[in-house]
Write a structure and sequence with these properties.
heterodimer, A: mainly alpha, MetI-like fold, 2 domains, globular, B: 360 residues, OB fold (Dihydrolipoamide Acetyltransferase, E2P), elongated
Chain lengths: 277, 360
């Protein structure tokens, strides 16, 4: 009885969560433009998507933006964690608190305040401003991923390297960094996902003529719904799903690629403040 | 005092505090060439900090570290001719055993054939031949610790620093490793500075033991002198079990304990001066009542394997006694101690000395 109720409850939850997305996916294969009836299976919308130059342009921008912002955020975030390791406990928790704020802050507030900042500084909106914004909100995710690994790292391996004659930088790159690689990769992928995913902050900091996929979808929807958008949304959903899978299951942890063996069970908790976008 | 050129490391008036907590207070200590010196004390006594200052991982607030007469206080760890074996082994997990051992040699730009020979030699020395291509994860704790030692000694340091290297191992392995370490030291002929809180480890391996507490050196001496002639109550209590009783030195070679007069062998404590008296549990002989110096009643008996551990209440003081003879609880016994088994110690006088009395 109890299990039966449990199953019904679980089913309801799953339907509630995934039915909208399933609907979207089904409609992306519907040959009829109507949302009300099934006109037969087609891949036309997907084909149309790939020949739509504007969308493909937004796609390339999105990938480039996500890659570049994630890369820069990963470097900065890892450097920040390294610095924090040498801080006193109290200072470190203060800095951790501060870096967590952008993650918990409502996107719309972050977006509007970034926009106001750029306006005040008279920076013309465009790729650069969006890139800066994405780096800003990506850094906390890198820190969130790298910091716990740093904590459980055997601090004395770094000292052992110094002891054996290594210069501090050499010791960091040969001993500390390989140990952090798994967590850094997770941080990078998470940042990449967050950047792909973002709409609100991009919307407020983009300039004319600049579009990512999500802002493109938004402006298309305003004009009138085109099933190509369903196809595009389906692809985006699957890509993000795939990335999250990689972030959480870290297939590179178990299977050593080359000689890098990272043995950690640290799970990165995805506290997604960006679920709504 | 030793000759100046015999001192390999000379710590002069080292003071160090962390966040306002004084960890080392005006510590002076020198280590001779080829010595096995152990820093022994309870946690927080400053022994690890002392080792880290020698290794270069901490800089003293005041004072100097001299290495063969040169001041190396400001030299970073990678420039010092010492190598450390860390408590948690600190092997590099993503490198093979061979790569771990070669780490220091590669930095010193040694030739490939030299490195290969050295790895082979070091693995043989720690009895782990053929482990070159294993990963640290696949080794047991004892094996990892041997590799950590091998990795340190291939660099031919003048001094090997060991920070509680056996702390994480089980008892049997720890005892085996103690013999290994003594053998290694004799084969290599280098100076060992060893940190531990385990008094048995210290007594087994060391040439010299430095007993520390709360940032002060309590006593420096050979294992025998530390055990047999502790200079104060802390050392007596920390090294082995002991009965520490307040007494009065009547005159040379005669001390009054618990109202009875005991003949001893110590001199020079003045007349009618209060002193602390140390009697080791194994040095107390239990006899029939009236046959000993004082009488007592057995209040507790535990079988310990080699001997019985008994508590004997006599004139308000509870003696701990180790004996192979069995006396049941409530037996009336006589207590006798041979004169040379009575160790007289000065009572602490200054504030500093008081501060370092027993706290466990």
């Amino acid at each position: 009885m109890k299990t039966a109720l449990g199953r019904i409850y679980l089913t309801l939850v799953l339907i509630f969560l995934y039915a909208p997305i399933a609907t979207l996916m089904i409609l992306s294969f519907n040959s009829s433009k109507s949302r009300a009836h099934w006109g037969g299976f087609t891949l036309d919308w997907y084909l149309g998507l790939f020949s739509n130059e504007e969308i493909m342009d937004a796609f390339r921008t999105t990938i480039f933006l996500a890659f570049l912002s994630a890369l820069i955020a990963t470097v900065l975030g890892t450097a920040a964690c390294t610095g924090m390791q040498f801080m006193k406990r109290r200072d470190r928790s203060i800095i951790m608190g501060i870096t967590n704020i952008p993650m918990l802050n409502a996107d719309i507030v972050t977006g509007v305040s970034l926009m106001l900042l750029f306006l005040a500084a008279r920076v013309s909106m465009g790729f650069t401003t969006v890139l800066f914004s994405h780096i800003t909100f990506n850094i906390p995710y890198v820190i969130l991923s790298v910091m716990p690994r740093y904590r459980e790292l055997n601090r004395s391996t770094y000292e052992a390297a110094l002891d054996l004659g290594a210069e501090p930088l050499y010791a960091f790159f040969t001993v500390v960094l390989p140990d952090l690689m798994g967590a850094i990769l997770s941080g990078f992928l998470m940042s990449f996902t967050m950047s792909l995913d973002d709409f609100i902050i991009t919307h407020f900091t983009q300039g004319p003529g600049f579009d990512t996929l999500s802002t493109k979808i938004y402006s298309e929807v305003k004009k009138g719904i085109n099933p190509e958008i369903y196809a595009l949304s389906t692809i985006m959903f699957l890509v993000v799903l795939l990335l999250l899978f990689f972030v959480n299951y870290k297939p590179w942890v178990k299977k050593p690629a080359g000689k890098i063996i990272v043995t950690t069970k640290t799970q990165v908790v995805v506290t997604s403040g960006k679920g709504g976008s | 005092m030793q000759l100046q050129n015999n001192k390999l490391i000379d710590l002069q008036h080292i003071t160090k505090s962390f966040d306002g907590n004084m960890v080392l207070d005006d510590l002076c200590l020198y280590i001779r060439e080829n010595e096995f010196l152990t820093l022994l004390g309870p946690s927080g006594c400053g022994k690890t900090t002392t080792l880290r200052i020698i290794g270069g991982f901490e800089t003293p607030d005041k004072g100097q570290v001299l290495f063969e007469g040169r001041d190396i206080s400001d030299l970073p760890p990678n420039k010092r001719e010492v190598n450390t074996v860390f408590q948690k082994y600190a092997l590099f997990p993503h490198m093979t055993i061979a790569e771990n051992i070669a780490f220091g040699l590669k930095i010193r730009k040694k030739s490939a054939s030299y490195i290969k020979d050295k790895i082979k030699y070091a693995l043989k020395l720690v009895n782990l031949d053929g482990f070159e291509n294993r990963m640290p994860d696949s080794l047991s704790g004892g094996q990892q610790q041997r590799i950590a030692i091998a990795r340190a000694i291939v660099n031919e340091p003048k001094i090997l620093l060991l920070d509680e290297p056996l702390g994480a191992l089980d008892l049997k392995l720890r005892q085996d490793m103690q013999y290994e370490l003594i053998r290694l030291k004799n084969e290599l002929g280098i100076t060992f500075i060893y940190v531990t809180h385990d008094q048995e480890e210290a007594l087994t391996m060391s040439d010299t033991i430095v007993v520390m507490n709360q940032g002060y050196i309590q006593q420096i001496g050979t294992p025998e002198s530390i055990y047999n002639e502790p200079e104060n109550a802390f050392v007596a209590d920390f090294i082995g079990d002991s009965n520490i009783i307040e007494g009065i030195m009547i005159k040379d070679e005669l001390v009054e304990i618990l109202g009875a007069k005991f003949v001893c062998v110590d001199k020079g404590f003045g007349e009618n001066n209060p002193v602390d008296v140390v009697i080791r549990p194994e040095d107390i002989d239990l006899l029939k009542p009236e046959e000993g110096t004082i009488d007592g009643i057995v209040t507790d008996t535990i079988f310990k394997g080699v001997h019985y551990e008994m508590c004997v209440m006599a004139r308000g003081f509870e003696f701990v006694v180790h004996s192979t003879d069995y006396f049941p609880v409530d037996t009336r016994v006589g207590i006798r101690v041979d004169p040379f088994d009575i160790q007289i110690m000065h009572k602490p006088e200054s504030e500093d000395e008081k501060a370092v009395e027993i706290d466990e």
